[in-house]
What we know:
CATH superfamily: SH3 Domains
Structural class: alpha+beta
Strand content: 15-25%
Number of helices: 1
Low-confidence stretches: 1-5, 97-119
Helix content: 10-25%
Largest sheet: 5 strands, antiparallel
CATH architecture: Roll
Distance between the termini: 74 Å
Amino acid sequence: MSTSAHQPDSPQVQCIQSYTAQEQDELSVEMADVLNILERTDDGWMMGERLHDSERGWFPTRVVEEIQNKEVRTQNRKEVLRIQQNKIDGPPSGVRGVGMRGNRRPPMVSNHSRTEGVQ
């Protein structure tokens, strides 16, 4: 079966077990990676494209589970498009890095009260 990663609702899987590529045409996948399925074989392999970096390769079907929910697949595609657009355009003006105030480090917060140990 052959499918396109650019179809409106192409099949997607999420990695449930890490796999390290053994051959040049294979793809190493990590827990929680989401991939569009491009092709499946009868002997338990899938050709996929990882959503976050568009890397492609073969991996065993035993390390992934199919995402059945259409809304989740749609949300995954929207998020990838949003990230890709941000890479092209950059963040909206006035938006700084998360947790940063300009170039300063965020304030450190102690778990201990200032009066702890003071008598």
